[in-house]
Structures are given as structure tokens and as C-alpha cells.
Amino acid sequence: MQDIAALSVSFFAWMQNSRVGTTISQSLPLTAGLSAVHLIGFTLIMGAALVSNLRLLGVLFEHRPLREVAGPASRGIALGLVISVATGLFLFSARASTASENGIFQLKMLLLVAAAGFQFGFHRHVTGREASPPVLLRLTGAVGLALWFGVALAGCAFILLE
Q: In the chain, where does DSSP find H-type helix?
């Protein structure tokens, strides 16, 4: 187990000291640009997650068919994830050693994996069915919102408390 920990520390140090990592860490405009695109990706995620989960809760578009709302929202979340993960990897490379040891960053990553897994697993299953019980729809919407807002709050906390 210690060998795995040492290997991961070495990998993160290598990533941070790579040409990509050092270029990003030494360039404020590049870091700012990547951060802006990262935020745009996450805005796509949160906007689509809000629409989809508020529909499940019966707060928004309640007279629209569930699939009509959930399908495009899932595609928006997927696109936002691609953008956010790609830019996030670049931003991470600039400070991989410190970020990987940060508990708030670790929580953000855990919540991100949980939210994406829930979204494209259980959420998709529930919204793809012809008829789901209203309590299941509302519970799915509440859990989906809680997970995505958890990612957002952990991301803000990481930035503010780093």
C-alpha cells in the first residue's frame, strides 16, 4: 500500500513538473483562460442539472414529457463534463502535488464521480422509464440536485480555502 502512495506522489510531482504543468503554473493568462472555460463547462452542467432535476421535483416544466426535458439536459451535462474534465486536468497539472493532498479537492472529486455516476446511471434509468412513481421521481431529483450542488460547493471551497 505504501508503494502505491509513493507512486502516486511521484506521478503527481512528475505531472506538476511537466512542460504542461509548468507552462500553466507560470502563465496567469493561460490559467485564467482555462479557469474561464472550466467554469463555462460547469455552468452547462449546473444549468442542465437544475432543469432536469427541477422537472423531476415537479417544479419546472411539469406539463412537458419527462424524456423531452431529461434527454437534452443529459446531453448538456455530458458536454459540460467533457469541457470541465479536460480543462480541469490542465488546471490540476499546474498544482497536482498540493491539490491531490487537499481534502476539499478530494471531496470535490468524490462528489463529481458520484454525481456523474448517479446522473448517467440511476437518473437515466428513472427518466427513461415510461412511468415511474412520483416519489421515485422526486427522490431522484432531490439526490441529483444535492450531488451537483455538493460538487459546486466543494469547488468553491477549494478555491477559497486553498
A: 2-17, 19-25, 28-56, 66-93, 96-101, 103-118, 124-128, 134-161
- Residues near 131 by Cβ (< 8 Å), separated by ≥ 6? none
47 CB burial (10 A radius; 0-12, 13-18, 19+): middle
Report d(CA 79, CA 147) in Å as an integer.
Answer: 18
Under DSSP, the state recorded for 59 is S
CA 123 to chain CA centroid, nearest Å:
15
pLDDT, tens digit, 9 for 90 and up, residues 18-51: 999 999 999 999 999 999 999 999 999 999 999 9
Neighbours of 119 (CB within 10 A): 25
pTM of the model: 0.88
